[in-house]
Amino acid sequence: MPDERGQAVSQIPARSALTGNVLVSGLVSFFTDVSSEMIVPVLPLFVTTVLGATMTAVGLIEGVAESTASVMRSFAGLLSDRLGRRKPLIVFGYGLSNITKPLLALTGSWAQVLGIRFADRLGKGIRGAPRDALIADSVAADRRGLAFGFHRSLDTAGAALGPLVAFATLAMVPDNYRAVFWIATIPGAIAILIAAFFIRDLPRPPAVRVLPGMKMAGLGRRFVVFTAIITLFALGNSSDAFLILRAKNLGMPVATIPLAYFAFNVVYAGLSTPAGVLSDRLGRRGVLIAGYVVFALVYLGFAVASAPAGRWMVPALFLTYGAYYALTEGIQRAFVVDLVPADLRATALGTFASATGLALLPASLVAGFLWDRVGPAAPFFYGAAMSAAAAILLVVLDAGTRKPFVLQARGR
Q1: Closest CA to 88 of 136, 26, 130, 27
Q2: Is the distance from CB of 307 to CB of 249 less than 8 angstroms?
Q3: Beta bridge partners of 2
Q4: Residue 293 has pLDDT above 90, yes or no
Q5: What's the rounded Cα separation, in Å, for the pair 216 and 351?
Q6: In 10 A of CB 109, how many CB atoms?
Q7: How far is CA 79 from the centre of its chain?
């Protein structure tokens, strides 16, 4: 049956929302994130202490990596819609990311790390939009929040397990970051096999309309306004590497930092599905606003904390940071799907990721510059201000243009 925009609404039974491609995609993300998140909490420490990189170099590495992923999402999404297929891009993207990670164990300079991170995030960019579009294709419209939240839960469960394995490794072989990188290859290989053998393309024709490419205006005014606001937020959302380095700066022992990151991911995983369900019932906008307020408070906490007492704040801040991720990550994607026609979902998801992700390069460069030139607290004051501004804009612009942001229970 058609919805208010004349689109066909999926008649997929509700019971299938957490099975099939949603479940398989979640498992692939789970193992990939075990691998990735083993690396995340130790890589900035490795780059700065072993390879001698500055904070500005850390910002360049992470900014280039994440911006690369975001640019590729737009092209991969467009290609997926044109071909009417999702799986080839998904498998290739996961394969590229997981094959390049072992090279970190062989690096001798931060420039080499930059190249490896570029290839890793290139794979992430290739798989992201087709995978999210496949999830949206596989469930009924009124189950999208649940499906995306469930996927984020499995994804983040892997992200929680990864730092725990990294902690255990460093406990057995202190300061041996390269051993962490080698062990991370095992779950990465499992992820590639699951993606190759168990993801199933759904029969769908290629898009017949003229696709908008990189022009956001072709996706509608509502999409453009929403993307512009979230891009503003992203300009202050520097790499999580700075949170890890701030934890060390505040006096947290290096070996325990992966545990704080583990706790963050446990909260993220546990709250993602409830947050998705809440957005299905109450609307996405209010949940997102709450998420950006939480982000601002966390960054403000990292800014005002001081050593040595501040190290006791770090675990609580990481736990709260997990709530921010749960309230925003999957819900942003569900919101984008709500705003565009079904045959442009991958294009819209990719374009949104490109617009917001490109902001991560200047965000991380600014954070590194502020840390080096002003002080460790400065990047966090800046991030808190940008997040607060985005939350206010979501409130103010909705007051003037309520229709674009109010979601119906079904078919939106």
Answers
A1: 130
A2: yes
A3: 8
A4: yes
A5: 7
A6: 12
A7: 21
Q: What is the pTM of this model?
A: 0.69
What is the per-residue pLDDT across 320-362, written as a single tens digit (0 to 9) for each?
999 999 999 888 888 888 888 877 777 787 788 778 878 888 9
Over the stretch 125-135, which tens digit does the pLDDT of each residue have? 888 878 888 88
Q: What is d(CA 281, CA 274) in angstroms, rounded to the nearest whole number?
A: 11
CA 23 – CA 1 distance, rounded (Å): 26
Round the average pLDDT of the chain to a whole number and report it.
Answer: 81
CATH number for the 20-203+214-405 domain, one of 2.130.10.130, 3.40.50.300, 1.20.1250.20, 1.10.10.10? 1.20.1250.20
- The dihedral over CA atoms of 408, 409, 411, 412, expressed in degrees to the nearest 10, equals 40
Question: Could you state, in order of their start, the residue ranges of all structural domains in the chain?
Answer: 20-203+214-405
Instruction: Report the C-alpha gap between 264 and 271 in whole angstroms.
Output: 11
Residue 263, both tokens: 């706790």
C-alpha closest to that of 273 among 159, 153, 136: 153
Does residue 279 carry a pLDDT above 60?
yes
Q: Report the pLDDT value the prediction gives residue 124, as an integer from 0 to 100.
A: 86
> Is 248 within 8 Å of 46 (Cβ atoms)?
no
Q: What's the pLDDT at 1?
A: 37
> What's residue 19's pLDDT?
65
Tell me how far apart the alpha carbons of residues 397 and 391 are, in angstroms, rounded to a whole number: 10
